[in-house]
DNA sequence: TACACCGGCCTTTTT
DNA sequence: GGCCGGTGTA
């Protein structure tokens, strides 16, 4: 048992306490994954059949990584018989086997968020209620809340409080919407993400024999990231574990970042109540990061009221301070980051794979991609608008979904007239209405089109088109019986007219759509190859569909991830580590997000997110923020994130000029950044505080009211007169945004020309008299 | 029936 | 800036 050597005391305890309930509180970087994998290995070496072990993770990435590490310890065949995966994928697998208890076919479709929203929109439309009030997204998140708290439609109607709450929210039809939505999904033979958990609960509660079967099977249960489980997941785990109580949960309350998905931090906080005999182990030594990083992170998280007390520490080197870069714009920020990576790559022989760029929202990727590409730095974007969510990809997949599950009316409506084949909205409505009236599915009507034709009220031309379409689908289905997934998909892409249609569009976007289709086909080929190699692999179409439905980021994982800069959201980065982290977009309303600044709870979750980001880094962290950002189609002013001011200044170091240090020093000491009305204006904040050129150059007075010059004095610590514009100055232009003055030309004050390089717009030559430049 | 155009809306994070 | 839904036109 060599692997036990090198564990510290609490780690050893966590690995070797095999029986009974165990809670491992694992601080960031404390070797959590190592403990989990070794624990599993230890179970197996102690004679436990891997078949009896269930390990649940939160992301596919985590599952995959852990499986690989376990395989190294205990061998491939042992690792393979483990049940390891995300909650959703494991229980989808179980529902495929047992779903018939609940009336679901084993080939049920899994709806992603978009599919579910489409179904919901139709429901709302059919009910004839105000779509302005019943916004699909809003309604969906309510439904999701219900489901995650096991409030079924019936339970809803038996719960006056809930109904009243919805009524107060001016949504008295919520129950009806919920009912119709659930019915529609059921009829389509489909489950949404929440259903995978809800239905599992239903299965385990209503059918004791099923529960007993899986209790006996999963004698040892491990749950990673337990702080991120929601109520539904909590109940599943509890039910499965109740027989043997060999349950080990691992988590860190400081890293709970999924409450928007229903994660309930009390699941971990109350573990001791559920299992009074539980052993608790705390892993507090951080082996990942420098002291500076760990200490700074501790300072940040200490601002949260709600947390377990713990003392995460590092005995690594002190390390460098966190460096902060203040940029003019998102583009400028991206250029800094790419230049910085380039330089460290050259001067410190860093691999590109040593770097991560972490951001709050996916929409921030674009600028970094551009900047990295310019410098020929290889990179990989994780997550984001997943490949499988692109329209053209979903379209082709919709054809394939129909082949697997004919009742999937969402897929059918997507493709029945795409590419256009003359089956318009009117026709589709007639079909749906008729099918509903006969209590049939549309596919059943299409199966017997000749028989129903007289009642449909459609002309012969349309009937022929419908017949042709359905014959094509049927032919694909026949083909699926003999041919492999790739060949069928290729045939679908060709015969449906999809490829031809996409190829007609010669714009870059159009070309990339064709490429995406090609890539989808390639990934199918890859899937087949992979499944054939695996013992008892399953290269079927339905297995392929399941794989992609539950994995946002599998996409082209085939290509080598070696030596590329990683770009991802902070959420995705959880559990990962990188020598050098760039944490970007540290601005108010972006991070913390404007959606999460309202309540203390929301803000604390943002802070935990910040903590997660910071603790990804091993050696060095770079923060950056932009004073203006191109978003929502225009340039928006931004101010630095409050999180920056929450870190003591001695952990920090400004990369660029003087003025910023002033800000950091001050805000390190007080919290004026929180004040609604700061005692003194901050130099970067409001337009009104910026200087103008009016006195010297006779520029027409700006339309906006300006504050007295006294403000400007504070803005400019060097004390030079506020009206001068000099080469090197940062200026703002009403239309072009923020830029830097490169060159001034002319002596006549009436006719001075300035060459300004704008962060977003590039180089412009401006006549000062006309260009209303504001010095910043 | 198909498509172009317009206007309003929003936009966090993931399974 | 991009998406969606509605509307007007060929």
Automatic annotation (TrEMBL):
Every UvrD-like helicase ATP-binding domain range: 5-290
CDD domains per record: DEXQc_UvrD, SF1_C_UvrD
Domain UvrD-like helicase C-terminal: 291-575
Keyword field: ATP-binding, DNA-binding, Helicase, Hydrolase, Isomerase, Nucleotide-binding
A Gene Ontology molecular function term of the record: ATP hydrolysis activity
Catalytic activity: ATP + H2O = ADP + phosphate + H(+); Couples ATP hydrolysis with the unwinding of duplex DNA by translocating in the 3'-5' direction
EC number: 5.6.2.4
Coiled coil: none
Annotated GO CC locations: cytosol; DNA helicase complex
GO process annotations (BP): recombinational repair
Keyword Isomerase: yes
Binding site for ATP: 26-33
Family as reported in the entry's similarity comment: Belongs to the helicase family. UvrD subfamily.
PANTHER family per the UniProt record, alphabetical: ATP-DEPENDENT DNA HELICASE SRS2, UVRD / RECB / PCRA DNA HELICASE FAMILY MEMBER
Name this polypeptide is given: DNA 3'-5' helicase
Native organism: Epilithonimonas hungarica
Organism lineage: Bacteria, Pseudomonadati, Bacteroidota, Flavobacteriia, Flavobacteriales
């Amino acid at each position: 048992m060599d692997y036990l050597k090198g564990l510290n005391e609490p780690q050893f305890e966590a690995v070797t306490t095999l029986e009974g309930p165990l809670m491992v509180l694992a601080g960031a970087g404390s070797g959590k994954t190592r403990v989990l994998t070794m624990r599993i290995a230890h179970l197996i070496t102690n004679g436990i059949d891997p078949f009896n072990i269930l390990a649940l993770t939160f992301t596919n990435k985590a599952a995959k990584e852990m499986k690989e590490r376990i395989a190294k310890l205990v061998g491939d065949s042992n690792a393979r018989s483990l049940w390891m995966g995300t909650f959703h994928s494991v229980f989808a697998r179980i529902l495929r086997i047992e779903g018939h208890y609940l009336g679901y076919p084993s080939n049920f479709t899994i709806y992603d968020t978009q599919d579910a929203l489409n179904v919901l929109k139709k429901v709302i439309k059919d009910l004839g209620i105000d779509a302005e009030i019943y916004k699909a997204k809003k309604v969906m998140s309510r439904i999701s809340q219900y489901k995650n708290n096991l409030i079924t439609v019936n339970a809803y109607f038996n719960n006056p409080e809930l109904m009243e709450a919805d009524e107060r929210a001016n949504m008295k039809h919520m129950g009806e919407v919920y009912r119709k939505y659930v019915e529609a999904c059921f009829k389509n033979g489909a489950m949404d993400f929440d259903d995978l958990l809800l239905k599992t609960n239903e299965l385990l509660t209503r059918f004791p024999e099923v529960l007993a079967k899986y209790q006996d099977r999963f004698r040892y249960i491990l749950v990673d990231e337990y702080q991120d489980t929601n109520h539904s997941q909590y109940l599943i785990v509890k039910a499965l574990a109740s027989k043997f109580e060999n349950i080990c949960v691992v988590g860190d309350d400081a890293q709970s970042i999924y409450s928007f998905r229903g994660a309930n931090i009390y699941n971990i906080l109350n573990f001791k109540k559920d299992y009074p005999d539980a052993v608790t182990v705390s892993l507090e030594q951080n082996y990942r990061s420098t002291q500076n990083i760990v200490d700074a992170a501790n300072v940040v998280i200490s601002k949260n009221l709600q947390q377990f007390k713990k003392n995460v520490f590092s005995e690594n080197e002190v390390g460098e301070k966190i460096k902060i870069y203040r940029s003019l714009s998102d583009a400028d920020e991206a250029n800094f980051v790419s230049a910085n990576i380039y330089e460290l790559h050259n001067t410190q022989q860093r691999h590109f794979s040593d770097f991560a760029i972490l951001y709050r929202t996916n929409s921030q990727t674009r600028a970094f991609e551009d900047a990295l590409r310019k410098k020929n730095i290889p990179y990989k974007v994780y997550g984001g608008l997943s490949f499988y969510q692109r329209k053209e990809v979903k379209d082709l997949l919709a054809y394939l979904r129909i082949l697997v599950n004919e009742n999937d009316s969402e897929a059918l409506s997507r493709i029945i007239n795409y590419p256009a084949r003359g089956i318009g909205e009117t026709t589709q409505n007639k079909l749906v209405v008729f099918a509903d009236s006969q209590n049939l599915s549309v596919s059943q009507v299409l199966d017997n089109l000749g028989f129903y034709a007289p009642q449909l009220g459609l002309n012969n031309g349309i009937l022929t088109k419908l017949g042709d379409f359905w014959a094509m689908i049927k032919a694909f289905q026949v083909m699926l019986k003999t041919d492999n997934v790739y060949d069928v998909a290729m045939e679908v892409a060709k015969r449906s007219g999809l490829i031809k249609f996409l190829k007609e569009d010669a714009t870059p976007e159009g070309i990339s759509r064709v490429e995406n289709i090609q890539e989808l086909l390639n990934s199918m080929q890859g899937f087949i190859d992979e499944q054939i190699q695996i013992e008892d692999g399953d290269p079927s179409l339905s297995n392929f569909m399941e794989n992609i439905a539950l994995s946002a980021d599998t996409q082209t994982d085939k290509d080598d991830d070696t030596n590329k800069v990683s770009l991802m959201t902070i959420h995705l980065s959880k559990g990962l580590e990188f020598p050098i982290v760039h944490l970007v977009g540290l601005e108010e309303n972006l991070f913390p997000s404007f959606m999460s600044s309202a309540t203390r709870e929301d803000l604390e979750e943002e802070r935990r997110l910040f903590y997660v980001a910071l603790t990804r880094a091993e050696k060095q962290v770079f923060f950056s923020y932009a004073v203006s950002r191109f978003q929502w189609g225009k340039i928006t002013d931004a101010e630095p994130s409050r999180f920056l001011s929450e870190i003591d200044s001695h952990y920090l170091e400004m990369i660029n000029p003087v003025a910023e240090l002033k800000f950091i020093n001050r805000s390190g000491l007080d919290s004026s950044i929180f004040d609604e009305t700061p005692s003194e204006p901050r130099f970067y904040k409001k337009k009104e505080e910026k200087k103008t050129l009016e006195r010297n150059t006779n520029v027409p007075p700006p339309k906006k009211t300006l504050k007295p010059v006294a403000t400007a004095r504070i803005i400019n610590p060097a004390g030079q007169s506020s009206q001068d514009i000099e080469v090197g100055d940062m200026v703002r232009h009403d239309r072009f945004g923020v830029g830097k003055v490169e060159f001034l030309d002319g002596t006549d004050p009436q006719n001075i020309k300035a060459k300004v390089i704008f962060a977003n717009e590039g180089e412009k030559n401006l006549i000062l008299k006309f260009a209303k430049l504001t010095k910043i």
